[in-house]
Structures are given as structure tokens and as C-alpha cells.
Amino acid sequence: MPPDNLGSPDVTDLLHRIVKAYDVRGLVEEIPLQVVRALGVGAATELTGDAGRLLIGRDMRASSPAWADALADGAMSQGIEVIDLGLTSTDQVYFASGELDAAAVMITASHNPSAYNGIKLCRPGAVPVAIDSGLATIRDHALRALAEGPGPASPSPGPRRSLDLRERFAAHVRSFIDADSLREVHVAVDAGNGMAGHLWPAVVAGLPVVTEPLYFDLDGTFPNHPADPLDPANLVDLSEAVVAGGHALGLAFDGDADRVFAVDESGRPVSSSLIGAAVADRMLVREPGATVLHNLICSQVVPETIRAAGGVAQRTRVGHSYIKQRMAETDAVFAVEHSGHFYFRDNYRADSGLIAALVLLQVVAEADAPLSEVLAPYDRYAASGELNLEVAEPTGDVLDRVVAAFEGRASATDREDGLTVVLDDGWFNLRPSNTEPVLRLNAEAVTTPELQRLVAEVLALAGGALR
């Protein structure tokens, strides 16, 4: 797309495609730097307010430095001061936004392949920005900036300075555990050539954590495997390293290190719900009686664990903006998403894979046992994982048909986020995708045969084909 078409309908279409529900993301080759600069204008206009400054962090992708420069140039053209955080993880950017009370952007495409890049944004205090809370407005500001051209420069263009918060953030992460009492623990960590390789050594500095590092070199081409630990294929190297090294567990981070996943000492991938239950137990030791949130596709073991520990369990729909809003409303100390996001009130209600990982390590170290033994009390249900079903008819019709089929058998149903049906021996949730004609099915039951029967029945009712 040539620069002289930057006010054209093609760019309008581009911006509507790359500005998603929660962030900006797309193929680098399709996104001119002028568009990134315009998004910097939009972010400065919408997010900075009277503070007049914008924090910018970036990941290790080859395109990220140029994107950071373009975005900074757009913000500074509005007279905004840019504070360049350099190479960071997304959770460090959220920490910086809270600590400095400033709007922030993180340039990353998270777990996507190297051909992609993107932008995550937040208001001062790490308050999330989604399509209905600022992203659409930023997009519209960017469209105007592109249509009108550069225009006159600000009488006082904003300055740009660098700020390295890595050690300050590492100390913040360590504040979530009792570092003085931490026993030695051996762990393999797969950074996937992403930002965990930059942050993990600083986080565990001075702690009795013996780490076998895998793919800590920052490389946005991801030469070893994609930085997407949600796919079990990308955990194979970690599993082999854990077994060969006799480690208590293994940890895997996605590209921008805001999510963490685990394998046990036998190399078996562990459900994020089980990690969430163990971390919730620990957080309720720190703050007895506190509220803990869990999204509606978490295992039933999560609310059961919260209540057993004396906490207040509250259910929320999927999505970080919803969860952070509910945390603010309820003063929840912690929140769990089954997708590997873990949120901490004292981290400005933002998610952090690094904090969750360190809390989990303390739990394992205190038990002086491998991860499977630590999680055994929580591992009491059979789960389907997320299944994607392509449907030809409107999703509302499918959900109505499923509701009718389970009428009289369900102990509870709701439509808070798709359809959730609770039965005596299990539950399931069918949730429409925001971007494609797909229903996402998550189901759980007391035993594997019961789970298999439940999944088969729901799939037959929904029709379509599994992807």
C-alpha cells in the first residue's frame, strides 16, 4: 500500500481489520509505518489526558524498534512526552503504567508468528483499553490523522527519554512471595525466544531457584518453535528437558511473557485451572477471606478451592477488560483465566505470567514435592479443553436448540457469555467467537466416560464440524 493512499478507503478497511476487540494486530507487511504513527497520534489524543506522557515498551520482533519509533513520533507530534521503556514484557509495561500513573503501549503480537506485530494499550494505572472503551476512538483519530496528513507540527513537540525499569519490576514480582523462606527448587524454563528470556534472570536473581534455560536468546523469528505454549506441540522440548534434568516442573511463557503454562515432572502439560487453584490458595493465605475471580470456562475446582480456603468466589465472563473491571468493583485479590492469564490486585489488577510463575514455584518449594503431587488434590475432574466447532447456521439458533435439549436435566443455565449449562455430573459452555463463525466448547465432568458422552451429545446438537 503506497504512502499516497494513506487517506483512502483501503486504509479505512485496514484499520478496521487490525484494530481488534482488545488490541491492534496484523501482518507487518500490510501495515505501513505511517499507520503506526497515526495510531500514536490516536493513543496520545485519547489516553494521555492532563498527564501528557506515554510509555512505550516493545518486544524482540524485528519490526518492533521501527514501530516504537513511528508510534513515538506520532505521540510527540501532539506535544506528548514519550518515555521509552525499551525491551520489556507486557506485564512490565502494565506495572510501569501503574507505578508511574501514565498511559502505556506495548508493541507485540504476543504468541503470533514472526510475520505479525501489534499494539496493546492501557490508560494510566494499567486500566485496560478495549474496542468499546477507547480502541475505536483511537482508530478514528488515526483515520483522521491519515486523511488530513501531517499538518502543522506542535509548537512544542514532546520530548523522548529512556527509562529502564527491569530491576524495579523484578523486585515487584519478588514481593509476591516470601523470598527469605523460599527453599531451593529446580525448574526448566522455556522462553520461546521471547521476552521471558530477558526478564526471568532478573526476577530470580538472588533466589534459590535453579533454572535450566531453554531459548532465552531474544529472537523474533522464533527459530526453535512458536512462542505459543497453549499448543502442546510447543511444549515438547520443555517436557523433554524437565524429564532429562529431573526438575520439579517446567514453565513456558508466550512471546510477550504475560501468560505462563506448566508441565509436571513427567513432562505432562498441566491445566491452567489447576495452576490458578494452587495460586488462589496461596493468595488467600496472604489475605484470608478475600474475593477471587474466575472466568466461566475455568474448572469447577477453582471456585471449590476458593471457597474451601475461606475466600469468596465470583464468576466472570471471558476477557481481560471484563475481569479487570470486576476486580476493581469487588477489590478481588486475584483472578484466573483458563487461557493462562493470572491477574493480581497488587499488580494494578493486571495479569502477569512472571508473578504467577514465582508464586507457583514457592508453592512447589514449600511442599518439597514435584508438581504432580502438589496439584493432585486439585486434579479431580476430566476436562475437554477448548474445542472449536464451525457452524453454518446462526449461533443463536444453535444455542436455543441446545438449551431445549437439556431442559429438565440442567440444574442451572445462563447466557452471560454464550451458553453455560450445569448438570449434576458436569457442565459445559458454548461461546461464539467474536471474529469467525465458530462456537467454542469447554466441558468438564466427574469422569472421562461421562465427559466423552457429554461432549458427543453437545456436538451432535450443535452440528457443524470440529476444526
Reported for the largest beta sheet, the result is: 7 strands, mixed
Assigned CATH class of the largest domain: Alpha Beta
In terms of DSSP E residues, the strand content is 15-25%
CATH topology of the largest domain: Alpha-D-Glucose-1,6-Bisphosphate, Chain A, domain 3
Rg computed from alpha carbons, rounded to a whole number of angstroms: 22 Å
Number of helices: 15
Overall residue-averaged pLDDT value: 93
Quaternary status: single chain
How many beta-strand runs? 24
Q: What would you note in describing this structure?
A:
The structure is a single chain. The chain has 15 helices and 24 strands. It has 467 residues and is α/β, with parallel strands linked by helices. The strands form four sheets. Strands 1, 2, 3, 4, 5, 6 and 7 form a seven-stranded mixed beta sheet that branches. A hairpin with a 4-residue loop joins strand 11 and strand 12. The longest helix is centred in the N-terminal third of the chain and has 18 residues, at 131-148.
Quick rundown:
This protein is of the alpha/beta class.
List the SSEs and their pairings.
Elements (H helix, E strand, L loop, with lengths): L8 H10 L5 E4 L5 H15 L5 E6 L5 H13 L4 E7 L2 H11 L2 E5 L8 E8 L3 E2 L2 H18 L11 E3 L3 H9 L10 E6 L5 H8 L5 E6 L21 H10 L3 E5 L6 E5 L4 E2 L1 H15 L4 E5 L5 H8 L3 E5 L3 H11 L3 E3 L5 E3 L5 E2 L1 H15 L3 H5 L6 E2 L3 E4 L4 H12 L5 E3 L4 E5 L2 E7 L5 E8 L2 H15 L2 E2 L1
Parallel strand pairs: 2-3, 2-4, 3-7, 8-9, 8-10, 13-14, 13-15
Antiparallel strand pairs: 1-5, 4-5, 5-6, 10-11, 11-12, 15-16, 16-17, 18-23, 19-23, 19-24, 20-21, 21-22, 22-23
